[in-house]
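tool_call: predict_structure(chain=1)
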Amino acid sequence: MTRTLRLVLLALALSPALASAQLAIPEIPYDAVDPIKLPDNLYLGEAVGVATNSKGNIFVYTRTGNPAATTGTRRTFARGAARLFEFDPSGKFVREIGQESYGFIFAHTVRVDRQDNI
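tool_result:
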């Protein structure tokens, strides 16, 4: 047999032992906590950005929404495909910012500057 074939056969023979050694993954204990409390009629979808301001308020930019398109004279305008929620430091819902805003569908994240401008 060639040396390559011997190595392949040896690897196949050892593969169950190697596989069992690789599956010995230590478990990391944790408790999942959902600090965000939304009203009954709102749902949080894919969160693409999270930021906090100096007061500890949490801003979540999400791609959840009901997209709508309006045909203009030369182009189509889309709106409502993204949402920005504000929560207090305890996770209680405060408000939704910029409902049905045209510019929100182009944002990639949310950021709060030093003067607490969103």
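agent: The helical segments are 3-22. Proceeding to next step.
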